[in-house]
Amino acid sequence: MDVFKLDHRLANDSVSIMRTSLCDIRMSKDCRWPWLVLVPQRAGITEIFELTPLDQVMLTFETEMAAAALKKVTGATKINIAALGNIVRQLHVHVIARFEGDANWPGPVWGYGTAEAYEDAKRDEFIETMREALSS
To answer: Which residues touch 104 (CB under 8 Å, ≥6 apart)?
Structure first.
């Protein structure tokens, strides 16, 4: 049986904020958008349909949980949810808070500008706030 290993690009671009029964919920290090990445902790999976039916249900539940928490914490105009995987093949789901007037609104976040790192205190505060929202 293969062992789950996080893709190095996901590890470099995000930080783990919580583990659930299925996913490692991670926060993007790019502060331009409040952005979560859910990574199902299953080895060798690149597509949602490759998950077991139970894992598919859990992924849907955990994605909706993350989206609701992100909306509550940020008051976003829109929550974008996407599983692309064109560059990083390991299955992961993006949950991104968008606001009218944010960087590249209403265009996509991918490939726009240069990532901006969080200040340590703001990163830590956002992580703690998201952990609380995800746990309630």
So the answer is: 112, 113
Confidence of residue 1 (pLDDT cuts 50, 70, 90): low
Q: Is the dihedral of CA 20, 129, 96, 121 positive or negative?
A: negative
Minimal CA–CA distance to 131: which of 76, 73, 86? Answer: 73
First vs last C-alpha separation in the chain: 34
* pTM given for the model: 0.95
Report the alpha-carbon angle 32-38-42, nearest 5.
Answer: 150
pLDDT, tens digit (0-9, with 9 covering 90-100), for 71-82: 999 999 999 999
Pair type for strands 93-98 and 78-82: antiparallel
Residue 81, amino acid: I
Average pLDDT over residues 51-68: 98
